[in-house]
Amino acid sequence: MIKTINLKKIYKNEGIEVPALKGINLEIKDGEMVSILGPSGSGKSTLLNCLSGIDKPTEGKIIINNVDITTLKDDELTTFRAKNMGFIFQFFNLIPVLNAVENVELPLLILGYNEKKARKIAENILIEVGLKDRMKNFPNMLSGGEAQRVAIARALVTKPKIVWADEPTGALDTKTGMNIMNLIKELNEKNNQTFVIVTHDPRITEYTQRILKMDSGLLFEQN
Ligand SMILES: Nc1ncnc2c1ncn2[C@@H]1O[C@H](COP(=O)(O)OP(=O)(O)OP(=O)(O)O)[C@@H](O)[C@H]1O
């Protein structure tokens, strides 16, 4: 379970304070697929960055699988994230000098899997996302939809309990975006992983079980 207690984030820049999160209390159950919807500047990315340990909150607790991640030391947090979390970004964030299968196997190599085993697992997951014939393509030889499938495969390859997605369809045309959402939904149902998807696009929320609406650093829940 993911739980926050009175989560606050205040950015401080040259003496100016910007309160981006003003006390967020949320609970997301294991296996849930949730969207966080809100206008530009409402704090969605800040919330996702705090929940996923990319950024540190100013105040409050973030409890993930019974661990308050705000109390972890940097190296403990890095290990916790590598073991428990996967990330999907708007612009895919693939490594340009690695081909598709090399991008996907990288998280496994970082976790210490041997090369043969990592390659096999990466190939299987690329088949699962429909990219059997694109394994050796470099990112610049993939369409946007294919690149996002590779990124999804990379996010899921370590079988994380939680997958964070920041505008996963933001750089794609509508049809490709909907295909990606169908794939994410299918994987969520099959693997019972928690998906938290940040978006400003209400169409994306139709794929999720629950919508958490944000405005001005606060959360308004909707079922
Ligand atoms: N590094 C920063 N320093 C100062 N203020 C920041 C910083 N990052 C974000 N903010 C401010 O915090 C608020 C929330 O920003 P955030 O990026 O979380 O919103 P968002 O809902 O994700 O917006 P968008 O949909 O446009 O990405 C905004 O007012 C923004 O200007």
UniProtKB/TrEMBL annotation:
Task: Check the record and name the SMART domains matching this protein.
Answer: AAA (SM00382)
State the Gene Ontology terms under molecular function: ATP binding; ATP hydrolysis activity; transmembrane transporter activity
Cellular component (GO) terms are:
membrane protein complex
Q: Which SUPFAM superfamilies match?
A: P-loop containing nucleoside triphosphate hydrolases
Q: Print the keywords alphabetically.
A: ATP-binding, Nucleotide-binding, Transport
Gene3D superfamilies referenced in this protein's UniProt entry, alphabetically: P-loop containing nucleotide triphosphate hydrolases
Q: Where is the ABC transporter domain?
A: 5-223
Highest taxon of the lineage: Bacteria
Recorded hits in InterPro entries, A to Z, give: AAA+_ATPase, ABC_transporter-like_ATP-bd, ABC_transporter-like_CS, MacB-like_ATP-bd, P-loop_NTPase
Pfam families (alphabetical) = ABC_tran
The record's comment on protein family reads: Belongs to the ABC transporter superfamily.
- What is the protein name stated in its UniProt record? ABC transport system ATP-binding protein
Q: Which organism is it from?
A: Marinitoga hydrogenitolerans (strain DSM 16785 / JCM 12826 / AT1271)
